[in-house]
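Hi everyone,

Forwarding the result from last night's run.
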Amino acid sequence: MIFSRKRAGAGRHTRDERTTEVLDQGADTSASALVRGPYDISEVDDDVQRLDLGSLHIPAIAEVEVRVQADPQGVIQQVVLVHGDNALQLGVFAAPRSEGIWGEVREEIRQSLLRDGAAAQEVEGEYGPELHAQVRTPDGPTNLRFVGVDGPRWMVRGVFQGPVATDPTTAGPLAECLDGLVVDRGQEAKPVREPLPLRLPREIADQTGAEDDSTAAAPRQV
């Protein structure tokens, strides 16, 4: 299954840096313009419709498909947003209270890519330091762009694929989704870098359970 949603209404360090850039450039300094997401749930008080996947609340943006791979229990293994030829894979992880982890994670990704024979270049992008790489796939060479945002006790990692991997200006509504993303970290202690739990919305999980009563359960694309 695929979630398709129409729009219903209108890391700490990284977000602070981007806020400063807006001010330095003399752009609109209204409250809505000063800070871009992803946001912590404690920072959000708006009427934007979002798809609640547990730790991630994804804005409902027109023409963006939310593809989710879940196990028979409704536990989500992968979240990918798709718009045209572009895709954005999302992950959210626990982080310590004292500092962000994107710098360390970024270096680990770079080393992993190198071991697989793919060169990765660090680039200063709109979300701070990014990694750009080209990897081999069964369909041929594929460009990837890794971005990360550190928040309060969490980190969001995004992987862009498609034309947007080399030209961020083509992100379109995928950028809206990332900028409006909300993280619900919860209060319980978790090991650093542990993926935060993601789940199907209750109505989808109930529907899936009903289907599994009459058919063999198997991991599925949602």
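The longest strand covers residues 140-151.

Cheers,
N.
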